[in-house]
UniProtKB/TrEMBL annotation:
Belongs to the enoyl-CoA hydratase/isomerase family. In the N-terminal section; belongs to the enoyl-CoA hydratase/isomerase family. One of its GO terms (cellular component) is peroxisome. PANTHER family: 3-HYDROXYACYL-COA DEHYROGENASE, PEROXISOMAL FATTY ACID BETA-OXIDATION MULTIFUNCTIONAL PROTEIN MFP2. GO terms for biological process: fatty acid beta-oxidation. Residues 338-513 form the 3-hydroxyacyl-CoA dehydrogenase NAD binding domain. The keyword Cytoplasm does not apply. InterPro entries: 3-OHacyl-CoA_DH_CS, 3-OHacyl-CoA_DH_NAD-bd, 3HC_DH_C, 6-PGluconate_DH-like_C_sf, ClpP/crotonase-like_dom_sf, Enoyl-CoA_hyd/isom_CS, Enoyl-CoA_hydra/iso, NAD(P)-bd_dom_sf. Residues 516-609 form the 3-hydroxyacyl-CoA dehydrogenase C-terminal domain. It is found in: Peroxisome. It comes from the Eukaryota. PROSITE patterns: 3HCDH (PS00067), ENOYL_COA_HYDRATASE (PS00166). Pathway: Lipid metabolism; fatty acid beta-oxidation. This is Glyoxysomal fatty acid beta-oxidation multifunctional protein MFP-a.
Amino acid sequence: MAANGRTELEVGADGVAVITICNPPVNSLSIDAAVLNFVRRDLYDPRLGLLGYGFVGNFLYSLKESYEEALRRSDVKAIVVTGKGGKFSGGFDISSFGGVQGGQTMQPKVGYIAIDILTDTVEAATKPSVAAIDGLALGGGLEVAMACHARIATPMAQLGLPELQLGIIPGFGGTQRLPRLVGLTKSLEMMLLSKPIKGGEADELGLVDALVSPNDLVNTARQWALDIYELRRPWIKSLYKTDKLEPLGEAREILKFARAQAQKQAANLHHPLVCIDVVEEGIVAGPRAGLWKEATAFQDLLFSDTCKSLVHVFFSQRATSKIPGATDLGLMPRKISKVAILGGGLMGSGIATAMILSNYPVILKEVNEKFLNAGIDRIKANLQSRVRKGKMTDERYEKAMSLVTGVLDYEHFKDVDLAVIENVKLKQQIFSDLEKYCPSHCILATNTSTIDLNLIGEKTKSQDRIVGAHFFSPAHVMPLLEIVRTQRTSPQVVVDLLDVGKKIKKTPIVVGNCTGFAVNRMFFPYTQSALFYIDLGMDVYKIDRACTKFGMPMGPFRLADLVGFGVAVATGMQYLENFPERVYKSMLLPLMMEDSRAGEATQKGFYKYEGKRKATPDPEIMKYIEKSRSMAGVTPDPELLKLSEKDIVEMVFFPVINEACRVLDEGIAVKASDLDIASIFGMGFPPYRGGVMYWADSIGANYIHGKLEEWTNRYGGFFKPCSYLAERAAKGIPLSAPAKKVQARL
Ligand SMILES: C[C@H](O)CC(=O)SCCNC(=O)CCNC(=O)[C@H](O)C(C)(C)COP(=O)(O)OP(=O)(O)OC[C@H]1O[C@@H](n2cnc3c(N)ncnc32)[C@H](O)[C@@H]1OP(=O)(O)O
């Protein structure tokens, strides 16, 4: 049995050596710090990595060793590379990035893996090798497979180079081999969008050579390798293929277009452009030059802030489902076979759509025929929009719709496992009805962003199975799910809902019960502070521009237009009731609403909307702003007109950080990284800045605290830093450090 991150080598009577990648759970290609520590310090340069020769890591060294053995042995004619447990490989071990970035783990010398191991050992081998791909072949995993002389995959295999989502580029030759196997346009799409493809598409494109069932995979690959050995099939080195590459002139046009697209999509990101440059180098100067450029660029990007932030996001996203007191108790999620949704409004129908898309049978209950039909029609419309966009076949549409049953009574509720209550009046009554009609294990979930879960359950004996499931609109599209637990919600129910969340492809975060929970609590100051600055004399469009340049999908005013002023005012009222000391009572939205100017839905808000969703600044808003300013009795501050975009971003986001600190301090969120994920998936905070708390720590609690203090003195209590922030600023402790660590340091 191999140790973690090693390869197993087994030679069959047919003369085929099968090299198996073994590193559960995803067979990542590991670099083992312990092994690297044996390398002599004098052969190590922190920027260039290993200058001399030595062990370069568990898996990769082991792969080279296995190859060398297979090449040496006279009983081996050909080689098959595969992965253990139905997965080829999820790529380079991301958990080792931190060690390399922090200097604890040495990295191999530039080009060692891509050139010495994959090109000069695997691809240049005198015996042919075939990759047998089931499950995942991502990043470095696919790069190993592309260095083999053929690839056999299963239809459900996922193949891709998603490195850019981590702020790096493919570093094991992927930028050179993928374009040569699938053409420039498709390869750029796969890399720039970090989008894997399934086995079927890979077969059509020529990325794999044959598609077989998982049971036939290794045997087919063995035979294929022998066929190459006996010259019955071509022996192809993908690095030197040219037939799929577009002619140079055309290639240059494709690269130019890709650069423009990359800049349009994320102007703050540098690494997509580096990726395009590296691809171009290979096309213009030849693939070996491309490999060298790739290797140096990869090592530089590994140390970038973008990479560090995105790796933080990767692990934080996975950590949201690790909940102390729930997921560490050894509880297994129970099987949810049927879901009931009460209320087919916008949210209810969106939730139903998300459920049926993941094959959960759904009962949709409404109070009358008219509402029920409207709810079913909304679900149909959600799915039809997917069909129109080519994301769903007609057959899949019919199958999904067949999972929905519309009802007007509780007759069908006796075998329901999960009941989700949408925004229906008399929730208390409904919960007590559900208690009567549903089986005693059924989870009772309510979708709400405000309601007090303790109150809802007051008339039932089922407080332990009451939980909040806060979806974001549109529920079948938005990726976040806030799971709200009260003091009495059972850990089993939390574990069950985390599992459902994962199955319906949402990123769940578990939060405590309070007005606004975590996401809306953080979101509120985003628009609040912006409204305040308008009364103080700032320009609406300048604020929006600064926020979008920072990386937000839209600024606070464009967002208010999208959400609608009615919702914004209603939310403001709830905050006023619960947190009066930090609500700014702006009159701007009510004034605009008096003239039926209530956001995008009314074609006019802070912007004018003529074409579909096209927002144009509207000078008319000045008359409302002037009125609002005079009603507020605030004197505009000429200093604010001089602010740079960086200053504006700080003024908008530091109150958000302040609120995030309160959320953490009150125990509403379990850990700071959950708030990072909540800000990215719930607010659209740029992931390459790592999330709101990670970004805050990159700036420093002390600086943020100082600014908030300064603004409190100048403009009032709205900015007052909370005690959590003040304490950490004073003691120099990161905002994201866990509470017990703080205590340990106090
Ligand atoms: C030089 C090279 O070009 C550079 C590279 O290869 S960079 C790496 C490229 N590969 C990737 O980006 C793939 C990243 N992984 C994923 O997208 C997904 O994890 C996956 C599709 C592989 C599996 O998804 P899923 O089945 O939902 O499981 P998921 O919960 O994400 O992962 C399972 C565990 O494997 C870990 N994991 C997944 N991929 C990993 C990787 N490449 N390295 C280290 N750990 C990894 C996860 O952190 C998680 O650990 P946990 O159970 O302790 O939380």
